[in-house]
Structures are given as structure tokens and as C-alpha cells.
Amino acid sequence: MTQHIDIQGRILVANLSGELDYHQAERIRTQIDAAFDKSSCRHILLNMAEVSFMDSSGIGMIIGRYKNAEKRGGKLVLAEMNASITRLFELSGLAKIVLREDTTQNALARLGGN
Predict the structure, then answer these.
(1) Is 92 helix (H, G, I), strand (E, B) or coil?
(2) In what order do the strands lie in the sheet with 43-54?
(3) How high does pLDDT run on average in the chain?
(4) pLDDT band per the 50, 70, 90 thresholds, residue 20
(5) pLDDT of the residue at 21
(6) Residue 26: pLDDT above 90?
(7) Phi/psi at 90 (5° precision)
(8) Nearest residue to 46 via CA among 36, 72, 55
(9) Is the CA virtual torsion 50, 89, 69, 63 positive or negative?
(10) How far apart are CA 8 and CA 64, in angstroms?
(11) What does the alpha-carbon distance between residue 105 and residue 89 come to, in Å, rounded to a whole number?
(12) CA 88 distance to own-chain centroid
């Protein structure tokens, strides 16, 4: 799992790729939280375009980032999920609490970014 973290205004954008599993979720969580804590961001956008696999550890990581954004009065949005990740997103119940957009541009617009 690799990621690139970028700040766009009040939005922390994490572009993830690879497998979001037990072995990687904690490392990704730590890196996103460190960047979020140092920033004045309110929102988190996870670009999932290059994520090939996700398990329950990935779901837990997403829920934690949702709570962190919520504490600042912000939102978490997932963007560009493939079909298998979308299915897990819906089956897990995440779809009831976490916002989803088809494209990163739509997610940025939804969060008030560029």
C-alpha cells in the first residue's frame, strides 16, 4: 500500500494504492492522522482509485478517519472506488455514514475545494 498525501485548502487528500489490509491499515492510519493533526484541514478525501483490495482493517481505518473529520466539523469522502471496493463499502454499512463520489473532482467540489 502506498499513498500520497496532499493538502488542498481545508481538505486533506490521500491518494491510496495497493491493498488496504491488516498489514497496511495501521501504517496508513498513522500517516494520515499525522498530516491531519498538523494541518488546519476539516475534511478528508480518500482517493481509492488504485486500491485493489480492502478488508475489515481497511474499514476500521476509514471509520476512524470519519470520526477525526467529524470532530473538526468536517466530512470524509471516498472517491473513485472500483466495483469490489464499492460492494464491500455497501455491505459493511459504511455507505450509511460515509460520503462517496465517483470522481475526485466531484468529491473536492462537494467539500468546497477546487
Answers:
(1) coil
(2) 2-8, 11-20, 43-54, 76-79, 99-101
(3) 94
(4) very high
(5) 94
(6) yes
(7) -75, -45
(8) 36
(9) negative
(10) 21
(11) 20
(12) 14
